[in-house]
Automatic annotation (TrEMBL):
Keywords: Membrane, Transmembrane, Transmembrane helix. Pfam families: DUF2007. InterPro entries: DUF2007 (IPR018551), N-reg_PII-like_a/b (IPR011322). This is DUF2007 domain-containing protein. It comes from Povalibacter uvarum. Residues 1-67 form the DUF2007 domain. The chain crosses the membrane at residues 86-105.
Amino acid sequence: MKRIYQAANNIEAHMLVHLLEQEGIQAHVEGEHLQSGAGELPLGGLAAVAVADEDVDAARAIIRDWEARTAEKPEKAETARANRSIAAPIVAFIVGAALSGGFVWSRYNGPAMAEKGDYNGDGKTDEQYIYSGSRLVRIETDRNFDGDVDCLYEYGTDGLLKSASLDDDFDGRMETTIAYGNEQPLEQRTDYDGDGSADVVATYVFGALQTYDYMNADGSRVRRITYNGSKADRAELDLDADGHVERRYRFDKYDEPVGESVEK
């Protein structure tokens, strides 16, 4: 396998994988997960698209065509945003101080509008940016081009990212939610079996993975992996969920468990 494209994020990487597969080229995302004793854990900024060596030239040609078709859309969106930002002060000046309060309100709470993108050219919306006035409210993305939103980002009135919802198995249910503070992840909860309770809970400090917990349906913790610099450092297991840790071990530089201790 050979990497042919460094994606801006996991969303873009998955879009391109599905685009290539529609053209008969098998592809997958590399660098999306950290392989460790904790299982597959998401990492940001490392996602790349890889294909078999014999498909490199064809895959690159498809991606170049996709880039050419989508290049004009961000420019048009940026022009529209620039026009709105230029027009706003002019209108405020004309209307005067007496109406400035109402103008500010309408700027951030005005009629809803959306900017839409069709990345694979099938005539269907693959991603849309939804605004209230000029304030970004939500981003909806269909990563696998099946017509259903499987990635949702929501923004607060301060313009900052507040939460994300992900359907990573593309079954129509958002099993993962991520809470953000200052646009950094704080907590990620995933409900794999759909019973309404989280099966795994990850916490972050300053955007860096801190703990990864495996949970029972009653909310008790079975296993905790603690991280240091996004690397697995140590694990604690409470397999009978009685609140008492029975096993502890650390991880070596290859993320293999070492130095296990068993407590009675």
